[in-house]
Amino acid sequence: MTKSLALKIDDAEPVTAPASARIKLSGVPDDRAMLRAAAELTRDLHTPNKRIYWTDMLVSAGIGYGAFAATILAPSWPLALVAGVVAVLALYRASLFIHELTHLKHSLLPNFRLGWNLLVGIPLLVPSFTYEGVHTLHHARTRYGTAEDPEYLPLAMMKPWTLPVFLLAAVLLPVAMLIRFAVLAPLSAVIPSLRRVVVAKYSGLKINPVFERRPPEGELKSQWFWQELGASIFSIALLTLVATGIVPLRDFGIYLAVIAGVAVINQVRTLVAHLWENDGEPLTVTAQYLDSVNVPTPGFMAYLWAPIGLRYHALHHLLPSLPYHALNEAHRRLSDALEEASSYHKANYPTLRGLMHRLAVSTMGAR
To answer: Is 309 left (phi over 0), alpha (psi -120 to 50) or beta?
Structure first.
């Protein structure tokens, strides 16, 4: 990414493809040469580096919680504001390891899921069971972009008011999750009918309102149990401490604001992860790739709004199991090996701002 997001509005066009007309994605055939190159050129990149994962997660969480404490203790509001921004950005990075957890073979990173949930997932009210078993459906060959995809809505074809509503939902996330874990979880443990609703509707990080989750099975069932129990104990304890005055309302408000800030940044990133131009038809892998976004140009801002490899979201859809620290090298290899006419280059975009503008213009055209 370039040094600044403040570039020309028309930079929403792909880096190597000037055409802006919407493609009918359901008619796009697979680019066999691209798929073959993606598989062959990255065979040696699929092993996660334990040191990178643990160091990145621990340092991000440590900076985030340190900045959160500084926000509470700051002697003036300007200092509190600066510390709060640092807390949001660092905890945002730490929280995004939930995405890696959904694709990792956990045997290759022993105890990483446990450590992440204890340090990040439960305190931020997003234990990994809320994403594991949900996000992988978004990558399913026959589900992407359809009504059965929990993470897809045709936002580019929806009304302009859907974008602010989409962001408002992120602002309300911490309150909703506190209700989910402090109220609905214990009640649903003794009311079977409520439990069915909680599992189906309120147990997954999704954007598709009609998607309903199935009850967990196998290993996920036990993971779900202890993670939900931990999040419930944490939420009930926190609300009790606030109600009894042990935790001041001001500090509780800062906690909610930091989590909301993390959620809003992630929601903005989600808005530019895809072009959201599929009309509900099943797509080929290449069509899914073209409906997804890479923002490969390096720059400081890219590491803030799309950390943990998420600026290569289209590439991630080609190679979902590739560790985040290998995506940059994979992109370099594929960019060098594939000719300019390849579909691979058509999913590369220069900036966040241009993508947001493209989406906003598309929704305006849907009025």
So the answer is: left
The structural domains of the chain, with segments of one domain joined by +, span 23-365
Please report where in the chains the tokens 């609703």 appear, as a residue. Answer: 197
Non-local (6+) Cβ contacts of 259 within 8 A are: 91, 124, 125, 173, 174
Can you list the alpha helix ranges (DSSP code H) found in the chain? 32-40, 50-73, 77-95, 97-103, 112-116, 135-138, 162-171, 173-179, 185-188, 192-201, 218-243, 249-271, 285-290, 300-305, 313-318, 327-337, 352-365
Q: What is the pLDDT of residue 317?
A: 95
Q: d(Cα 186, Cα 180) in Å, to the nearest integer?
A: 9
Residue recorded with tokens 């859809």? 317
- From CA 63, how far away is CA 322, in angstroms rounded? 26
Residues 6+ apart with CB under 8 A from 198: 180, 184, 185, 188
Could you state, in chain order, the average pLDDT of each consecutive group of 10 residues for the chain (367 residues)? 30 40 75 96 96 98 98 96 98 98 94 98 98 93 91 86 89 97 98 97 94 93 97 98 98 98 95 88 92 86 89 95 96 95 91 78 66
Cβ atoms < 10 Å from Cβ of 312:
25
Tokens at 43, concatenated: 């065979």
Q: What is the pTM of this model?
A: 0.90
Q: How far apart are the first and last CA of the chain?
A: 32
Rounded Cα–Cα distance for residues 279 and 212 (Å): 20
Q: Is 244 helix (H, G, I), strand (E, B) or coil?
A: coil
Instruction: Name, in order, each residue with C-beta under 8 angstroms of 36's C-beta and a sequence gap of 6 or more.
Output: none
Which amino acid is residue 249, in one-letter code?
L
Which residue pairs, CB below 8 angstroms and at least 24 apart, start in 287-291?
287/25, 287/26, 287/28, 288/144, 288/145, 288/317, 289/34, 289/314, 289/317, 289/318, 289/343, 289/344, 289/347, 290/23, 290/25, 290/28, 290/314, 290/343, 290/346, 290/347, 291/25, 291/145
Per-residue confidence (pLDDT) for residue 10, from 0 to 100: 34
Separation CA 345–CA 50 (nearest Å): 31
